[in-house]
């Protein structure tokens, strides 16, 4: 009987083989897949905003975060199962570069295109949600603005560390989803780590590309919004340190760690 999961060593090899696509994948394909990932993560972020609206006061902060994290996991499920290029998950492509199967230049090119595509997709989705007027439902706009404001007020070093912790979990989720051989297994692999990072309050650069612009768009409807919620604080105060942290978390603690264990020297470990 065929097993429904891969061993860690088999999973590392599969991720490395999948990473070879970077060398031959057309730019147009990468762009479309990165736009889709921006949409998918935004779907999860939007749902987390709706579910989290007002629940902390009724159920407590911990339960509210648990619920928000649970529904946010939909985003990575869509990315993994439907197929898309997510910048944070593509930290794992470092394994392929370390083995020389793709060049470092190709890796950086992929990261740049995917990051920009994720940003455009997330921003467009934020605009769609703004134009939908769904934020006019009770407490949803307030929740969206509160999330965005809190994120833009984080000190640089705090945002960096939270970014590291976040993508450590995200890349482990992608690792486990790759190991799973069926749809339920992939969904469960995405659920646990993603729920954990959201409930813990860690920072995900692509999710923030939806959360903060949504708050900025809604701020025009609420003149009393905290003045710290600005595009400058979004890009410099949050997106920059969180993106750097996401790279460190995914590359060092997952990609490099498992390359060292299983692929160093060009051979698959036990």
What would you note in describing this structure?
The protein is built from twelve helices and no strands. It is an all-alpha fold and 270 residues long. It is globular and about 60 Å long. The two termini are 22 Å apart. The model has no long low-confidence stretch (mean pLDDT 95).
Summarize this structure as a short list of keywords or feature phrases.
270 residues; mainly alpha; 12 helices; globular
What is the fold's blueprint, element by element?
Blueprint: H1 8-19, H2 27-52, H3 55-59, H4 61-72, H5 74-83, H6 94-98, H7 104-132, H8 140-152, H9 156-179, H10 183-200, H11 205-219, H12 231-262
Helix pairs in contact: 1-9, 2-4, 2-5, 2-7, 2-11, 4-10, 5-10, 7-11, 8-11, 9-10, 9-12, 11-12
What is the structural class?
mainly alpha
Order of helical and strand elements: HHHHHHHHHHHH
Total helices: the number is 12
Low-pLDDT stretches are: none
Strand proportion? under 5%
- Overall geometry: globular
Briefly characterize the structure:
With 270 residues, this protein is mostly helical.
């Amino acid at each position: 009987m065929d097993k429904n999961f891969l061993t860690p060593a088999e999973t590392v090899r599969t991720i490395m083989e999948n990473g070879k696509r970077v060398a031959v994948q057309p730019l147009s394909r990468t762009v479309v897949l990165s736009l889709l990932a921006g949409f998918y993560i935004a779907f999860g972020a939007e749902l987390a905003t709706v579910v989290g609206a007002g629940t902390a006061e009724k159920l407590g902060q911990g339960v509210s975060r648990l619920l928000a994290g649970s529904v946010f996991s939909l985003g990575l499920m869509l990315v993994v199962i439907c197929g898309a290029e997510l910048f944070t998950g593509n930290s794992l492509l470092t394994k392929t570069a370390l083995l020389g199967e793709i060049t470092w230049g190709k890796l950086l090119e992929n990261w740049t295109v995917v990051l920009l595509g994720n940003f455009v997709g997330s921003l467009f989705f934020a605009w769609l949600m703004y134009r939908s007027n769904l934020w006019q439902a009770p407490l949803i706009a307030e929740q969206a603005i509160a999330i965005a404001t809190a994120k833009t007020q984080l000190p640089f070093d705090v945002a960096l560390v939270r970014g590291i912790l976040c993508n450590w979990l995200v890349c482990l989720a992608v690792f486990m989803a790759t190991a799973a051989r069926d749809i339920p297994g992939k969904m469960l692999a995405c659920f646990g780590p993603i729920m954990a990072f959201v409930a813990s309050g860690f920072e995900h650069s692509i999710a923030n590309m939806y959360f903060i612009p949504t708050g900025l768009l809604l701020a025009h409807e609420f003149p009393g919004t905290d003045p710290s919620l600005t595009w400058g604080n979004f890009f410099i105060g949050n997106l920059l340190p969180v993106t750097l942290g996401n790279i460190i978390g995914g590359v060092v603690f997952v990609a490099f760690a498992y390359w060292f264990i299983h692929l160093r020297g060009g051979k698959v470990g036990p």
